[in-house]
């Protein structure tokens, strides 16, 4: 542990494993807003964040509770599933386009970058919604997983209804 007179302490968020400052600096140097995707225990949160010297500014946000409130996501279906992540990313892209932004850089934080996970389902929703984010096609989940067929056949209808509600609202 850095304790001596000539030693420098690490940032607290780095020592606790909450922030990778090397990755964050690369994202900030691009000058493009970041599409931040975080998966919690209950939902997926998507935000478009711009850097400011006083602190990051959230331009727009979408999460699982907004899916249920505004866009008629069924209450029996979890808001942290792959289809819910896809719809959340789609909702963010539509909101952001309405605000006049059309490109972003994906920021997944310390989440594992496993192809097909919920973070990349949200990215697929953003891309399908019209937001330009640099990506590779191999990282997206399959269309069956995005539609929710791996959970239940009835979820595919809920995904389509939610997408239609998002299109209608924006």
How much of the residues is beta strand, in percent?
Answer: 5-15%
CATH top level is Alpha Beta
The unreliable regions are: none
Helix share, percent: 40-55%
Question: For the report, how would you describe the main beta sheet?
Answer: 4 strands, mixed
In short:
The protein has helices spanning 12-15, 21-29, 64-70, 82-98, 118-128, 143-147, 155-169; strands at residues 34-39, 44-50, 57-63, 105-107. It has 170 residues and is α+β, with helices and mostly antiparallel strands.
Molecular structure report:
The protein is α+β, with helices and mostly antiparallel strands and 170 residues long. It contains 7 helices and 4 strands; from the N terminus they run H-H-E-E-E-H-H-E-H-H-H. Helices cover 40% and strands 14% of the residues. The chain has a 4-stranded mixed sheet, sandwiched between helices. 34% of the residues are buried.
Could you give the topology of this structure?
Blueprint: H1 12-15, H2 21-29, E1 34-39, E2 44-50, E3 57-63, H3 64-70, H4 82-98, E4 105-107, H5 118-128, H6 143-147, H7 155-169
Parallel strand pairs: 1-4
Antiparallel strand pairs: 1-2, 2-3
Helix pairs in contact: 4-5, 4-7
Output the keywords:
alpha+beta, Nucleotidyltransferase, domain 5, four-stranded mixed β-sheet, 4 strands
């Amino acid at each position: 542990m850095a304790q001596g007179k000539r030693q420098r302490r690490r940032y607290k968020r780095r020592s606790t494993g909450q922030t990778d400052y090397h990755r964050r600096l690369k994202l900030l140097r691009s000058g493009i807003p970041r599409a931040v995707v975080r998966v919690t225990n209950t939902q997926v949160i998507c935000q478009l964040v711009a850097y400011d010297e006083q602190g990051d500014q959230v331009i727009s946000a979408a999460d699982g509770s907004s899916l249920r409130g505004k866009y008629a996501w069924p209450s029996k279906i979890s808001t942290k599933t792959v289809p819910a992540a896809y719809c959340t990313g789609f909702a963010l892209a539509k909101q952001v386009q309405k605000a006049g932004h059309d490109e972003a850089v994906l920021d997944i934080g310390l989440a594992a970058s496993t192809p097909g996970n919920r973070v990349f389902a949200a990215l697929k929703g953003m891309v399908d919604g019209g937001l330009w984010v640099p990506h590779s096609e191999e990282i997206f989940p399959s269309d069956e997983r995005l539609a929710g067929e791996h959970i239940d056949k009835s979820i595919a209808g809920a995904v389509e209804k939610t997408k239609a509600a998002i299109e209608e609202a924006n």
